[in-house]
Amino acid sequence: SERVSEEELESFGQRKWESVLHFLVGMDPNSTNKTKPPKAIIKALRRINLLNDTGEGLKITSKGFQFLLRDPYSQVWVLLLELVNSVSNGSIKAKREVLEFLFEMNYSEPGAGYKISDLKDGPVAAMEALVALGLVYKPSRQSDTFFPTKVGRRLVANTGSGGRTDEKNVSASLGTCEIIVETNFRLYAYTTSKLQVDLISMFVHMRTRLPNLAVGHITNESVRMALRNGISAEQIIAYLNAHASSRCRSGRIPSNVSQMIRLWEAEKDRVKTKSGVLFDKFETEEAFDMVEKYAFEMDAKLWSSRILKTLVVADRAADQVKTFIKSNRIA
């Protein structure tokens, strides 16, 4: 029977999963169709709100950043369950068959090949998703043989954490990283993982990158950029504390740094007031829609509720909206 070395299977599984994480971080402008995860994976990342289309391309969400801090097995489970739900078209029978298959993989022989034609319909339908996540390896798309990878064989056995995020047990799939943050906001990241450096670059202005060290500054602008992408101050602080070097006092980043990160977030969240005029005497939804569209096209709409048939427009445009209502005889 066919066999593949355990080293080759482990390398394949790692490459596949890292391509998903790299795409989620979204820091590699040179990614090609070969390194990008399949469209089914990208759609799943969007469906579970780990990625969001901002109009300027796909960006990681706050939920996506939190996802990166989870242990690798719970990460795989989150995405796997969404993919299984998609390929099974809601069939409870198909989902059960896939879960049974995952339990069976737990007892598979390392490096041994198995026939796809011997499987039930559920696992067959989910096979491409399992390959895309690095849980199984297929020599070719047409091959009837699959090989469970190390992650695939251990997936069921490593679910005891319940998916909890542990500050000191951040996802091993990102690669090891030890961080020192000084009171002057300079950051030193000791890591060989490009993925870790790309992740840190989401909220740090990087200045130097060496094979095993990256140096940067935590600045107002770098943190604001992260905040604009939906990453919270607490998530940034939790990540830095999770990777804080044992050489750091108390094993955490300096308090003045964490306080300033929170302050920058508070400045961003300050309430801004705008004067406006409220319109709420619309008799029909059609009338409301017409006026709302007019205000929107003038860039004057501040707030609206179709259910309440209520519209607030900028002060500067109130007279024009009133004229529009009268000229169109909108009650």
From TrEMBL:
Compartments where found: Nucleus
Which residue range or ranges hold the Transcription factor Tfb2 C-terminal domain?
261-326
Which spans of this chain does the record mark as coiled coil?
A: none
Listed Pfam families: Tfb2 (PF03849), Tfb2_C (PF18307)
- What Gene3D superfamilies does this protein's entry cite? 3.30.70.2610
**A GO cellular-component term linked to this record:** transcription factor TFIIH core complex
This one is known as General transcription factor IIH subunit 4
Organism the protein comes from: Rhodosorus marinus
